[in-house]
Amino acid sequence: MADLTALAAMAAASAAYRRLAERARTADPDLPTRLTGWSVGDLVDHVAWGAAMEAAAVRAVAGLPAADPVSPSLVEAVTAFEQAAGLQVDPAAAVVLPAGTVPFAYAAPLFAFEAAVHSADLDHALTGEDPPLSADELSACAVVIGPMLDLLASTAPVGEVVIDLVGLGDGIRLSTNGTEDGAAGAWQQSVPDGRRAATTLTGSAQDVVLFASGRIGANRLQVRGEAEHAERFKAYFPGP
After folding, report:
1. Is the N or C terminus of the chain more exposed, i.e. has fewer CB atoms within 10 Å?
2. For residue 28, which of 130, 133, 127 has the smallest C-alpha distance?
3. Domain Mycothiol-dependent maleylpyruvate isomerase metal-binding: where (predicted)?
4. What residues in the chain have per-residue pLDDT under 50?
């Protein structure tokens, strides 16, 4: 999977947001989505907020004020994001987001991940299918998902456990830090270190993305080792 520049990630996010906005124009806002408790209208409202927030964050780094209006429609938010995507931003520049401050080199693929997955959410609500993610969208997801799972990590089992996700980029390894007294530790993203994984989940790049983001279950992946950890994965890593 090729390295992705921040500029290419912003372009991928813009394209995904635009696709979503175009399909949302004629979608029934009361139609349910696969996101628990969310209708298409809820999804549209969330994406409008997210795209506007992301555009404002990029504009702030570039020394520009946030675009009007403050509470935009989906089309207005996407237009603002597309304009922000054309700005020249240093990849090392600090971008302030609700979850924390990250370099633009990470923020841009994070935006592409959000746009791609939510665009797929709308497609799934309308057709019951997931459209193929583009190569740039998958590259963005490969950059983002490991650190994202590290950030979202919640419940950890007792002792030391290693879970490998295989199929997206170079793969993702998540492990507990185990404690000497056998109590539950904490999850962290780690590099291959010779330890054998308790559970290995293997699938296509797209299925790994959808599984890690809670859109599909482990039954869509090949599971080797202890099935319990595959079944509890989203309890370990809730959201997004």
Report:
1. N
2. 127
3. 11-94
4. 1, 182
Pairing of strands 199-202, 222-225: antiparallel
pLDDT at position 3: 67
- Of the residues 117, 143, 169, the one at which a domain ends: 143
Residue 106 sits in a domain whose CATH number is 1.20.120.450
At 189, give phi and psi (nearest 5°).
-75, 135
Closest to 80 (Cα-Cα) out of 111, 53, 114, 40: 53
Its pTM stands at 0.91
**In this structure, are strands 162-166 and 199-202 parallel, antiparallel, or unpaired?**
parallel
Give 3-state DSSP helix, strand, coil % of the chain, rounded to 5: 50, 15, 40
DSSP code at position 100: E
State the Cα–Cα distance between residues 49 and 51, nearest whole angstrom: 6
